Amino acid sequence: MKFVATVARLLLGGLFLWASATKVPDMGAFAESVANYRIVPAGLVSVTAAMVVGVEITASVALLTNLWSRAAALILAGLLAVFTVGLASALGRGIDLACGCFGGNDPATWWTVLRDLVLLALALGVAASSRPAPSRPVAGTPDPAPIP
User: Fold this and answer.
1) DSSP notation for the chain
2) Measured in Å, how far apart are the chain's first and last C-alpha atoms?
3) Which residues span the domain enclosing 82?
4) Which of 32, 34, 123, 136 is at 20 to 30 A from 107, Cα to Cα?
């Protein structure tokens, strides 16, 4: 089971690193894709696009290096939930748009929503199979009393 969890973690991390790497060369096009969903206010589109890519890179590196894997998987699960709801909302409103998912111009469809739901399940599975980050005592706080 540990092998499957490791493969899932590396797959998710690699997929999101690749997805973010395809967006970086043309952030303007990705920002346009974000704007086409008609959810983010126009003044926040560029910042939102940059934040999405930054979070994708950070979380994918964390997964690939197995540092803070649970937190990274939960962050990507949150992004995937937002992506899925946003995409379903746009499709439900009849907006014809490109997904913007992997830096391409592929049209968004209900199959794209299904793919995002599968990735969401994968991210939640990775989070469930990852150990929580070790807790560290805060400087200046006394050690807890030993239990007799």
Assistant:
1) -HHHHHHHHHHHHHHHHHHHHHHGGGHHHHHHHHHHTS-S-GGGHHHHHHHHHHHHHHHHHHHHHTSSHHHHHHHHHHHHHHHHHHHHHHHHTT---B--TTSS-PBP-HHHHHHHHHHHHHHHHHHHHSPPPPP-PPTTPPPPPPP-
2) 37
3) 2-129
4) 123
Report d(CA 132, CA 122) in Å as an integer: 17
Length of the chain: 148
What global pTM score does this model have?
A: 0.83
φ, ψ of residue 111 to 5 degrees: the values are: -65, -30
Q: What is the pLDDT of residues 16-32, one digit of tens each?
A: 999 999 999 999 989 99
* 136 inside domain: no
pLDDT in tens, 56-84: 999 999 999 999 999 999 999 999 999 99
Closest CA to 60 of 87, 80, 86: 80
Q: Are 124 and 117 in contact (CB under 8 A)?
A: no
Q: Could you tell me if residue 26 is inside a domain? A: yes
C-alpha 147/C-alpha 122 separation (Å) is 39
